[in-house]
Automatic annotation (TrEMBL):
Family statement drawn from the similarity comment of this UniProt entry: Belongs to the HARBI1 family.
GO molecular function: hydrolase activity; metal ion binding; nuclease activity
Region entry Disordered, spans: 316-352
Organism: Grus japonensis
Coiled coil: none
Primary residence: nucleus
Lineage: Eukaryota, Metazoa, Chordata, Craniata, Vertebrata
Protein name per Swiss-Prot or TrEMBL: Protein ANTAGONIST OF LIKE HETEROCHROMATIN PROTEIN 1-like
Pfam families, sorted: DDE_Tnp_4
Superkingdom as given in the UniProt entry: Eukaryota
Keywords linked to the UniProt accession: Hydrolase, Metal-binding, Nuclease, Nucleus
Localization annotation: Nucleus
CC per GO annotation: nucleus
Residue ranges occupied by any DDE Tnp4 domain in the UniProt entry: 153-307
Biased composition annotated in UniProt, kind: Acidic residues: 329-347
Amino acid sequence: MMSLSASSASASSACGRERRLWSKARSSAFWETVRAKAFSRGEWAENFRLGPATFDFLCGRLRAAIQRRDTTMRRAVPAEVRLALTLWRLGACTEYRAVEQQFGVSRSTVCKILRDVCEAVVAILTPAYASPPASAGGFSLPQLAGVLTRLRVPIRAPPEDAASYSDGRGWHAVTLQVAVDSRGCFWDVEVSPPGSGLRASALYRRAQRGVLCPAPPVQFSGVTVPPYLLGRRDDPLLPWLLRPYGSSEASRRRGRRRFNAMAAAARERAAAALGRLRGRWRCLQKRNDTDLTFLPTLLAACCLLHNVCQVRGDPCPPRWLAPPPGESLEGEEEEEEEEEEEEEEEGGREAARRIREVLAATLQGRAAE
């Protein structure tokens, strides 16, 4: 029996015609304009959400992982185009059809490039740009290693188990949980269904084993204070996770009020970091249609690219920062003022209270000096 390919080749030879591989011609005028350096620095920022120097830096770090070789059938998309395409897609949050028209690459290739580049960003940049802090500092609160905060990211309803991703507002979403350091960088990133809670996270399990971060503990008035995260009022109170005092508790002592004031300032810095993240990568502002299995990688890549921009000093213009109507910069409902009760490990809660009290007393003593 003759195969289909052999039959086609025979028919082609019989007709006296040379068989050629067909491919659709696509325009890459947009990228040709960029490559010709016709873009100003401002145009670079508007299109790729970072400056040309940072683009070159990223391309140098990622080239070995994202570059592909030419084949006998077609030329590979250059590494520069792959990176630019990914940044444009994350920053513009447009349909794949628009990316195809801008860069002259088919939609199926756009999907593959986006996945490849985001995976390379996470694999290569995580050790240098998202590692736990070696020392707790930079905030006004002593021993504070970071602020734990969350961002709701709307998604398309998944084909399976859609109810688990319902956010109670008529939408489907995932929760992006991050730990923010004093520079506004994210050193722990985790994605989970809404309402899954802190105790279901990998961060909670690591911290409970005493491996939150390598920063050493410090003694305050005979009490050992480990590096800790600052949580919200409805987070559990643990030795590695402190939260502000309730309104009635804070009114009794000046040190507690000072602790709350410094905690509020730290949370404002974390909220500003989330605002820059969402403003720079607009794929976080709209409903994300990315496949749910790939979405955690895409969100982690956005956080790492944000960290690179923070470290390198790429500005985030104020016009990028406007949050969607009715939402805070953290993408959540505003917190209640009163402290909520929850079931916690008694030993951990008592130890956390001692740590918080000694910090408040230390801050009161500093204020009196």
